[in-house]
Specification:
About 40% of the residues lie in helices and about 25% in strands. It has helices at about 40-55, 60-75, 80-90, 95-110, 115, 155-165, 180-190, 205-215, 225-240, 260-275, 290-305, 325-340, 375-380, 395-405, 420-430, 465-470, and strands at about 5, 5-10, 10-15, 20-25, 30-35, 120-125, 130-140, 140-145, 170, 200, 215-225, 240-245, 250-255, 285-290, 345-350, 365-370, 385-395, 410, 410-415, 435, 450-455, 455, 470-480. The longest helix has 19 residues, at about 40-55. Bound molecules: nicotinamide-adenine-dinucleotide (NAD). Nicotinamide-adenine-dinucleotide binds near residues 247 and 248. The site of nicotinamide-adenine-dinucleotide (NAD) has 27 residues, from α8.
């Protein structure tokens, strides 16, 4: 069995230290070991990035963008290999892995417009013979720390943009499914990126702490669970770093009495059970306005949940694969047990699913609870599994109050045919990403992604225009070229156009 090594300065580095097991969650077998970086290894990656920075920041943006064009082409040419690796170590279906890769590539396409997005702002004649402009300059060495659930897409939210903006990047991917992430980084080097500009260090808390504590690292982008996001934000900002830390979620879908139910049920099935519920934008709560729509939903959705095609993600034509680890599966099972104990009505129970031929895989079936109330842990906590909870309320205002009271505010959506309700919902809901008849309103690459409340710590969202702002600092330059032979006397009043 091979050990997945770090990629530093274009070379594979194995520091012969600690390792962690990487599983195929469909079989429950260990398929790889991954190196866990020591502080010294992280420091080595930082030194390499610092050395590469002066030349990279002075490379014309158009040349940086050309590398991204080649990178996109290489990802498209290697799509099957990448998708197979995602599915092998994460467990998601091949089709789902293909969708994640495509959304990642869209972020590279946005990064290809670097010469346009870095143009800056210019004002002529702000005073006598004075021109002024704002420049967007890179920060230096920046780092990204990413979760297991999108091993291709989430890193691609970060480094293409950081790198075209002129920064050098160190990526610390999830140690649970690092192979596809590493292959994609290799392809960026193959596309012509100078070696030290991007390094990958695998690891756990030790590697992350080394990145937080290094004064050379100017900014941290983090995506993962809320407790770690909060830790990284507070430790990073305490040291003067720029930090964007995206955390967990509990995403509600509101079903209004006038919703197109057949389409809403299809949308809910995909959004609740796709990727086994392991998406930060997964819908985990259906808020039904009135018993009539709730009863109709139950009647339509129960048979569809029971008919979910579940199996090894690496086989095609399935709806759902396994959870990522045995621990993740057991945690979700624990929540289902708690839901039953706390009095919710369990309409579909996924706990005893056996997948023939994959008996040791980390599978759970789709699960549905009705009569869920706001104090139950299946409502309050992010379960991150294939569990949908139905909460019944009496009005749109009650539904919105419920959502606004929740600690998370990542995504939400409303199913309705009524424009007035939809508009009120969009205006008043305290959530960062909102869908109207769209269950997973993940913004396209030229907008930005981010939740509110305890789903995001920091001021700027990920990728898109906010990503550019995050990975650059503004410099305002005011320049005078006096006309020859003119002399201006000293002025002691504050300069103005008054
Ligand atoms: P996680 O928080 O366990 O891990 C994320 C990263 O942090 C990994 O690289 C991991 O190695 C590192 N890490 C873990 N423990 C650490 C510690 N004690 N100190 C420092 N670093 C540590 O998250 P996960 O289980 O990999 O991913 C699932 C979570 O990510 C869910 O909560 C999900 O909602 C969230 N997520 C959020 C978004 C978003 O955009 N808001 C997107 C994807 C996933």
């Amino acid at each position: 069995m091979s050990t997945i090594a770090h990629l530093i300065n274009g070379e594979y580095v194995n520091d012969n230290g600690r390792t962690a097991s990487v599983y195929n969650p469909s079989t429950g077998q260990v398929v790889n070991q991954v190196a866990l970086a020591s502080r010294a290894t992280v420091q080595q990656a930082i030194a390499v990035a610092q050395a590469a920075y002066p030349a990279w920041r002075n490379t014309p943006p158009a040349k940086r963008a050309q590398i991204m064009y080649r990178f996109k082409q290489l990802l498209e040419a290697n799509k099957e290999r990448i998708v197979a690796l995602i599915s092998l170590e994460h467990g998601k279906t091949l089709e789902d892995a293909g969708g994640e890769l495509q959304r990642g590539i869209e972020n590279i396409e946005y990064a290809c417009s670097a010469p346009e997005i870095l143009k800056g702002e210019y004002s002529r004649n702000v005073g006598p013979n004075i021109d002024a402009w704002s420049d967007f300059q890179p920060l230096g060495v920046v780092a990204g720390i990413t979760p297991f659930n999108f091993p291709a897409m989430v890193p691609l939210w970060m480094y293409p943009l950081a790198i075209v903006c002129g920064n050098c990047f160190i990526l610390k991917p999830s140690e649970r499914d690092p192979s596809s992430t590493l292959l994609i980084a290799e392809l960026l080097l193959e596309a012509g990126l100078p070696k030290g500009v991007m390094s990958v260090v695998h690891g756990d808390k030790e590697a992350v702490d080394a990145l937080i504590e290094a004064p050379e690292v100017k900014a941290l982008s983090f995506v993962g669970s809320t407790p770690i996001a909060e830790y990284i934000y507070s430790e990073g900002t305490k040291r003067g770093k720029r930090v964007q830390a995206l955390g967990g979620a509990k995403n509600h879908a509101v079903l209004m009495p006038d919703a197109d139910l057949d389409n809403a049920v299809s949308a809910l099935m995909g959004a609740a059970y796709g990727s086994c519920g392991e998406r930060c934008m997964a819908i985990s709560v259906a808020v039904c306005v009135g018993d009539q729509i709730a009863d109709a939903l139950v009647q339509k959705i129960v048979p569809q949940i029971k008919a979910l095609k579940i199996g090894a993600g690496t086989n095609s034509g399935l709806d759902m694969g396994p959870l990522v680890t045995a621990a993740a599966r057991d945690k979700v099972k624990g929540y289902i047990d708690a839901g039953v104990e706390q009095g919710a009505s369990l309409l579909v129970d996924g706990r005893n699913l056996i997948v023939p031929g994959n008996e040791d895989g980390f599978f759970l079936g789709g699960t549905l609870f009705d009569m869920v109330t706001p104090e139950m842990t299946i409502y309050t906590d992010e379960i991150f599994g294939p569990v949908l909870c139905i909460v019944r309320v009496n009005s749109l205002e009650d539904a919105m109050q419920l959502i606004n009271n929740h600690e998370y505010g990542n995504g939400t959506c409303i199913f309705t045919r009524d424009g007035e309700s939809a508009r009120l919902f969009c205006d008043e809901i305290e959530v960062g990403m909102v869908g109207v008849n769209v269950p997973l309103p993940v913004p396209v690459a030229y907008h930005s992604f981010g939740g509110w409340k305890r789903s995001l710590f920091g001021d700027l969202h990920a990728y898109g225009p906010d990503g550019v702002r995050f990975y650059t600092k503004r410099k305002a330059i005011t320049q005078r070229w006096p006309q020859r032979a003119s002399h201006e006397a000293a002025q002691f009043a504050f300069p103005s156009n008054g």
